[in-house]
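JOB MANIFEST
job_type = single_chain_structure
chain_count = 1
residues = 298
[input]
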Amino acid sequence: MMSILRLHFKICSTSITYSTDARITEVLVMSDTHATRELYIPTYGMLSIYPNGSRDEADEQRIETSGTANIGPNDWVSFSFGAFADVSDDTIKEFAHSLHGFENIREIRLGASDHITDRGLKYLAQFEKLEEFSVASLDNTTARGWQVFGKLRNLRKLDLQSMPSIDDSTAKILAGLANLVELNLNLCPNLTDVAAHELSRLEKLEYLGLNMANLTDNGIKGLTQLKRLKSLDLTTLRLTSRLTNQSIEYLSELQNLENISMPKCSGILWRMILRRGFSRSAVRKLERTNPNLNIWTS
């Protein structure tokens, strides 16, 4: 039996006050050949549909305000909440309720919000087939709220930048997401060496952003277990006074590394070495081990 989902969208007030006609209604019509599920969803952003899992933008179908879409069982569906939408816990609750049991949602993008708390994050747990999630600057969440991501085992790309509430306990939860390929924890200042050692269990990881973490040489040593790592962001002045030549030695063990962002300097690599105290021999070893390595300084 083929399942076809028709989505009908209605614009709702971004003040999160729902009238009767803006609430979700659902009609399920069954026949011998297919099931039609009609959902009326309050929208705060854009729905993107990629046929048969293709991520080619040429195949993308977008629905921003209203419309109808037939979604096949293998289609990839992405939902982006509007950048200026007043998204709150109730917004996410209504969104999750409206798509309960719909397994095509593979990506969710959230913007910054002062109205999302741990209560809102817990509603994301139902999207068990989610592969990509991104959000920034949720100032009213706590470390406990991020534990819900431990249930999203299919995640491949996770962007949680600018989150003061994320700490080493969060890293321990995220380390259980064995399918992660990209993890952005930039601008999360409460991560330490403990987090680096926890995240070293992510064997498939190819990109890692830790540019505000409180790392020492010991933390960099933990990252050497990430044998597939291709890109590493360590760009921050907070790191420079605590890293020594030993960190450069450790980084040379990452033989698949292609890009590394190092602490801020005034330009070329040698100035950085002299200014930050890294020896030329240590950096030469890093370059020799990774001949195609791009070292970025900013």
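[summary]
The first strand starts at residue 2 and ends at 11.
Confidence is low (pLDDT under 50) at residues 1-5, 8-40, 264-275.
exit_status = 0
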